[in-house]
Amino acid sequence: MQKPKNTIIEPKKVDSNGLISNNQTQTEMRANYYQDLVADYSKPEPVATNMAQQIIEQAEVIISMKEKTLPSIDSDYTIEQIEQENREWWPTHCEALRQGRGDILTGEYRDNLVYLCQDGPYYGLEQQKERERHWWALIAQPGVTVVWPIVMFHGEFVYFEWNCLDTQTYELTAKGNVTWVRRGHRGGCYLKTEQLTFYRNVFASAELLESLSAT
To answer: CATH number of 49-211: 3.40.30.10, 3.10.450.50, 3.10.20.600, 3.30.530.20?
Structure first.
């Protein structure tokens, strides 16, 4: 599959006065980051029901492929294959979070996950579990839609930015930017760094927590 054409446009040449010499704007519109992915999660709109179900089924298959030992990157498991698998995985992560599938979200991690964020650091799955459940519940709550307008892939690395929008008032309720180091389907995520900000509520109610699938 051809990689998305989302690279940054090189700056135009300028003259001695610092003006663009060819009368073009200094930046050009970027291509949508989802143009080569199976579904677009950059917009505050649900994916078609049938597609969403297929994506969740794929998510369950992907987490079942995770191996107990982190696989090596070599001729049998190349960095190119890992990047392609990360592209395949990405829509499943988005849909799982929108549906509050805590079981899938937890299954994406390795047992020895390192999670660096302002509330952390967290090591392993138990340290971050209770805190992240609140974040997932707030992001997936009714009346709020999470979108990921930017996602970039480079080998093991997946960088993305997310926003939560109130569907009635369109106010921003939370946002963040994240980097995952994910060794494809066989390895899963072993390092995650995140800056996240919640503008409305920091801890989820018991009702919202109960709506998450078991973690």
So the answer is: 3.10.450.50
Virtual CA dihedral for 33, 96, 165, 37, nearest 10 degrees? 10
From residue 46, give the alpha-carbon distance in Å to each of 39, 51, 52, 95, 147. 10, 10, 8, 9, 10
Instruction: Give the pLDDT confidence score for residue 148 in this predicted structure.
Output: 96
Instruction: Note whether 139 and 97 are within 8 A (CB).
Output: yes
How many other C-beta atoms are found inside a 10 Å radius of the C-beta of residue 142?
9
Q: How many Å is the Cα radius of gyration of the chain? A: 19
Q: Which residues of the chain have pLDDT under 70?
A: 1-29, 200-215
DSSP code string of 180-204: EEE-HHHH-EEEEEEEEEESS-SS-
State both tokens at 199. Answer: 């503008």
pTM, two decimals, is: 0.79
Closest C-alpha among 64, 68, 155, 145 to residue 108: 64
pLDDT (0 to 100) of residue 11: 42
